[in-house]
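Continuing from the previous page of notes. For each protein in this section, the sequence appears first, followed by its structure tokens. Read the first protein now.
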Amino acid sequence: MRFGFQNLALAALSGASFALAQQAVPATGEPHHQTVYEDSRVRALDVQIQPGELIPSHRHDADYAWVDDAGIHFSRAGATHSERNHEVIVELLQRQTGPRNVCGEVLAGEYLHCHEPGSEWLGANLEIQFETDQTRVGILRIAPDAKLAVPPADVPPLLIPLEGTEAEVVSRMNGAPAGSSSRRIVKAVEVLRAPADHVSEIRNIGKTTARFLVVEFGGASE
């Protein structure tokens, strides 16, 4: 009987150890999630998984949007999904209310409320797919050799180049001569956010359409 109790104790201890090992860790502390940008509103993560690797159990402690080959998705804090290599995840650090589809079925089974982006994006190929009362998320496309002036805003939007995008950004202070502009090549998942006192222009230098995840801020509760 003594051995029976010992076996039960060992089994309970083993089960507790396994449960502890399976506890979800914050995504920000999980090495496959690289933080590429963070401010008071958002945290942008780049998922890097080598062939054959498995990601440990983890959690996102804020509502989050992510983009993959299938499009944009949204989950509430605490929800999990099977992440893939090169996924871009944007954790929305402020409380999000009124989530709704716009021009994409991000929330399965919900109606679309498709509308044009703001007039500041006039002429841009921007499709807002999802929004809350605080945030709008969409995909911006720029044709080869085309360029786009990033619209000014009190809270500048985030533009995140997606995999395969080849582009450069030219930026200068408002009112400064064109010759004072800085120019640089941007890489996938490198977050672009022009200061409000700068004029920025993005040019597609590749041979295929450049795609950017756009995250805009503002709304009734801002």
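Done with the first. The second protein uses the same format. Note its length before scrolling.
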Amino acid sequence: MTEQEFTNLVNEHKATIYTVCYMFSKDEDEVNDLFQDILINLWRGIDAFKGDSKVSSWIYRVSLNTCISAERKKRIPTERLDLNIDLYEDNDADTKQIQMLHKRVHRLRPFDRAIVLLWLEGLPYDEIGAIVGISAKYVSVRLTRICEELKNMKDEEDVL
């Protein structure tokens, strides 16, 4: 594959890659680092791609594996500075519910987060299974268990 072909491939799937990155981090710098790591892994693995699955499925798989590996490697917890500035403050009920769900999803294990992300992207169970390496039936089982886990999760404020 030529550099130009690779650039076209990345441009075509850039939104997918960024979606995966943002599922694993809220920090823009970390998201950019993850994006860069994914591009490196895609470039290194493109010649090994056999075409057994869709290119988009392969890109999801490389992206998810890269982000999951990066999450495992995190050793030193960082502390964020809270500037108490919210330029886009929105306090309606829908926004609060979306924010609560987003926080709960971020507390899931990386593998479960990956399944939720792919499901939210509207992928069929068989494709989700191909990407994460499980059967379509087990995707269904995992999603049911994830939904129960999300329902039973307490908000972080309740835990403190």
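What the second structure shows: The chain has a mean pLDDT of 85. The first helix runs from residue 3 to 24. We return to this in next week's lecture.
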